[in-house]
Design brief:
Largest sheet: 5 strands, mixed
Strand content: 25-35%
Shape: elongated
Radius of gyration: 25 Å
Helix content: 25-40%
Number of helices: 3
Order of helices and strands: HHEEEEEEEEEEH
């Protein structure tokens, strides 16, 4: 439906897009029904000579039904949307599948610090690798990201992978993704974070397996 969306290159991107379509169809139908009712009432109850306007107090069940029935419909639709969203939310936000690749991403005004743990697999040791605004991952592998912020709230956004997660000062927030197609994809900040917000942009490079191994060897020759 949303052909103007960035190309989906994520394992769970299709599920996210289906939820966008689901919500758009429901709200779109409700919008047209509401506009249709307004036009009907504007036409039927327009001013006419010799007909007095009637003040409706809404103190009878029949009158209150004009408010209560739409309210009930909206509540039921909201529950339906929540039930449809819950499995996807649990898969993307509440689970952390095993991952061979871990990266610590720290947001600050106005760039991204990407830290790899090195061959020992531990952050905060001598073999860590820090890059500015560059994230390199292999295709077809789960990547686990630990998000932090040094100053204000930022938002780590991978439009092509349908991942958006805030980075909050004083907290470490886990996220994950799995890219399905090699390429170079933008990493903008999706939370207004100051005067340089619009220029806060990094890049995700998704490598084929052999190219990723070459990249690893270049950074850690002795590994």
């Amino acid at each position: 439906m949303f052909r103007w969306f960035p190309e989906n290159v994520s394992t769970y991107g299709g599920e996210i897009d289906s939820l966008f379509s689901f919500v758009a169809y429901i709200t779109g139908i409700w919008l047209f029904l509401t506009l249709g009712a307004l036009l009907l009432f504007l036409t039927r109850y327009r001013f006419r000579e010799g007909r007095r306007a009637v003040y409706v107090r809404g103190d009878t069940l029949r009158q209150a039904a004009w408010t209560l029935l739409p309210l009930l419909v909206v509540v039921l639709l909201d529950i339906w949307i929540d039930l449809r969203n819950a499995p996807v939310w649990a898969r993307v936000k509440q689970s952390l599948p095993p991952s061979p690749v871990r990266v610590q991403v720290t947001a600050k005004q106005f760039n991204w610090e990407m830290v790899y743990p090195g061959p020992d697999g531990q952050f905060g040791t001598a073999d860590d690798l820090q890059l500015e605004n560059e994230l390199h991952v292999p295709v077809g592998k789960v990547v686990r990201v630990t998000l932090k912020a040094k100053d204000v709230i930022h938002s780590f956004f991978l439009p092509n992978l349908r991942l958006k997660q805030d980075a909050v000062p004083g907290r470490e927030i886990e996220a994950w993704f799995e890219a399905t197609k090699p390429g170079r994809y933008e990493i903008p900040c999706a939370e207004l974070c100051g005067f340089g917000h619009s220029g806060m942009k990094g890049w995700l490079t998704v490598h084929p397996p052999d190219e990723y191994q070459k990249w690893v060897k270049q950074r850690w020759p002795s590994s």
